[in-house]
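Anaphase-promoting complex subunit 5: structure, please.
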Amino acid sequence: MASVHESLYFNPMLTNGVVHANVFGVRDWVTPHKMALLVLLSELGRAGAQLGLLERRRLNRLLLPLLQGPDMALSRLRKAIEECCPHLAGSVHIRLKLMAEGELKDMEQFFDDLSDSFSGTEPEVHKTSVVGLFLRHMILAYNKLSFSQVYKLYTALQQYFQKDEKKDGADENEMELTNPEELDGRMEKEELDGPLREEEIACSGPLSQKQAEYFLSQQASLLKNDETKALAPASLQKELNNLLKFNPDFAEAHYLSYLNSLRVQDVFSSTHSLLHYFDRLILTGAESKSNGDEGYGRSLRYAALNLAALHCRFGHYQQAELALQEAIRIAQESNDHVCLQHCLSWLYILEQKIFDSCVLLEHSVNKSLHFGLPYLASLGIQSLVQQRAFAGKAANKLMDALKDSDLLHWKHSLSELIDISIAQKTAIWRLYGRSTMALQQAQTLLSMNSLEAVNVGVQQNNTESFAVVLCHLAELHAEQGYFAAASEILKHLKERFPPNSQHAQLWMLFDQKIQFERAMNDGRYHVADSLVAGITALNSIEGVYRKAIVLKAQNQMSEAHKLLQKLLIHCQKIKNTEMVIRVLLSTAELYWRSSCHTIALPVLLQALALAREYSLQYLASETVLNLAFSQLILGIPEQALNILHMAIEPVLAHGAVLDKGCAMFLVAKCQVASAASYTPQKKTEALESAILNLNEAKTYFAKVDCKEQLRDVLYFQARLFHTLGKPQERNKCAMLFRQLHQELPAHGVPLINAFK
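Here you go.
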C-alpha cells in the first residue's frame, strides 16, 4: 500500500517549484555564450516581419531556457536555433564570425548598438520585459569592465568561436571517412540526445545568481515530479560541489545535495548536507530577514524536525525520537503551532512502530483542520484510512472517509494528494479482494491530468502513487494470464523509475513475484527457488512465505512446516492479518498432503474467522473453497457442493485465473463424488456437467500455462470419458496427459490430495 507520509518532509526550497535563493553573491557578467545570445536577440529584432509566426513562436519558447540556463557550447546553441529557424542560425553564425575575426572595436560597436533597441516611440524591446532586463544587465555589466577585462572577454569570444570551427572541421573530415549507414546512425543518436535537455548541460564554471537559482529550481522540480529527467545522482552532486566551491554558504545548494543523497539512500551524506543547509541558513541570516526575530529559532526547530524525518526514513527510530523531542521543545517555546502539527504527525509514525494507536492521529487531524493546514489534515485522514483498512473496517466507511479528504484536495488543488488518495483506494480494493474495483481506480489515476503547472517536457506522474498503481496493474494483468501486457507495464515502470530511483523497489518486488508465480505454474521449482533470494531482499516476509511454498511443492513437508510456523508467529506479532491467513491456508494444505485431514479443519476455520473479522472477502472465499475440499476428502461431497455455491461467485468475479481454474476443478470433483449415489441417468448428467466444468478449468489453466493442473484435469477427463463409454475422447485426453506427464516430474502425491 502506498506510503502517505513521504511528503511530510519540510521542503523550504520547493514553493510552487521556485527556489528562494537570496544568498548567492555572484553577480551577472558577460560571457561568450551570453554574447551569442545578444547576437541572437539583435538578429531577431532585425528580421522583424520576415520571420513567420510559427518560427517566431518557436524562438520565443527557446529564449527563456537559454537566458536562464547555464552556458553551453556554440555548436549546441546553433543546433537549437537551427531547429527553430535555419536562416536565423546562419545570420547569428556570420555575425559572430565577423566579430571574432575582426577587431576589438567591432565588439565595442556591437554593445553600443544594443542600447538602440530601447530607443524610439515604439522600441523593439520593452525595458521591463524578460529580454529587456537581460539586455540591460549585459550592457551594465559590460560598461563596468576595465580595459583589460574587455580584452580578456574578446579573447574568450575568439576561443569560443574557434573551438566551434575546429569541431565543425573535424566533423566534416569524419563524415568523408564514414560510410552512409554509420553516419545515419550517428545522426539519429545526436537527434535523440537533443540540444534542449538542460539536465545534460554541465555547469563548467561559476554561475551567476540567476543561473544558479534556475539550475537549482529546475533540478529540485525534476526530483519532485520527474526524477528520470533530472541529472544522475553522481553528475548532480558534481555540479553542486562545483557551485559550493565558489560559494560554500549557498544554503539551497546544500539542501538539494540532501535531496540528491536521499535518492541513493546515503545516510552520511544526506545528514551532512541537511545540517550544513540549516547552518548556512542561520549564518547568512536568510531566515531572519524573511521571518523577523523568529527566523533563528524557526531554523533550529525545522532542522530538528527534518533530522527526525531523516532518521525515521532510514529506520533509526531512537535517534528520530530524540530529534523529534528537541523539535517539539523548541516549537513549544516559540508557540509555533504549524511546526507542532508536523511534529505530531511524525510522532504518530514513530509510535506506530511500537503499538497501534489512532489517538495521536485523530488529534493531529483535528488540530490541522483548526489551524488551516489542509495538507497535513488530508495526510492524517489517509493514514487513518490505511490503519483502519488493516483493522478490518468496512470498505464503505473507508471510502466515505476518503471522499471527505478528496473534498479537501479539490478545494485546495492538492494534486499530489489526489493521486495518493486514488492509489490508496486501489490498494484497499486489492486488500479486500475486489480486483475489478482496483482496476477501475488504477485506470482513473492513469488517465488523470495533473493540476500543477510544470515545465515543458516534465511529467507530473513520476511519483510514488503512480508507481504503486502501475505495479498493481501489472499484477492484475499477470493474475488474469496477460503476461505480455504485464511485461509491457513493468518495462514502462523500469523506464519511468530507473533502478537508482527511490521508488524502484516497488516494481522490483512485483517483477520478482510475477516471475515466481510463472515459474511455479510451469513447474520450474528450481527457477522459483532462485527468485526467493531477490524477493527476500525486498520484502523479508514475502520471501520467507515464497520459500515455504517452494519447499511444499518439492515435497519437503517438515522444512516447509517449520518455516510456516515461524512466519505465523512473526506475522501474528506484527499483526499482518493477510499474511497470517495465507500462512494458515498453506499449513492446511501441508496437512492434506500428509494425510492429516482432520487436523486441517480447525486451521481452516481459524483462517475463515480472521478473514471475515477483517472483511477480507476474497481470502474468505478462498478459505471456504479449502473447507469444501476438506469435506470432499472426508467423504461428504454433497455438503462440499452446498458451500461451494456460496464461495465460488466472488472467485469467478474477482479472482485470479489460476484460482478460477482450481475452483471449477473442485466443483467437478465434488460432482463426480456426489454422483456415486445417483440413478444411472442422473449420474450420466452429473458426469457430463463435470466434464463441462473440467473444460472450463482446462481453459483457465492453459491461460496461465499451469501444466501440472492441466495434467490432472486431463487425467480426470480421461477417466470420466471412459466411464461414459466415449473411447475417442478418452484416448485424446490420455494422449495429451501422457505428453504432459513425460514433461513434468512425478512427485508421488495422490491426485485427490491437492486442491491447488
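Notes: Residues 569-753 form a domain with the Serine Threonine Protein Phosphatase 5, Tetratricopeptide repeat fold (CATH 1.25.40.10).
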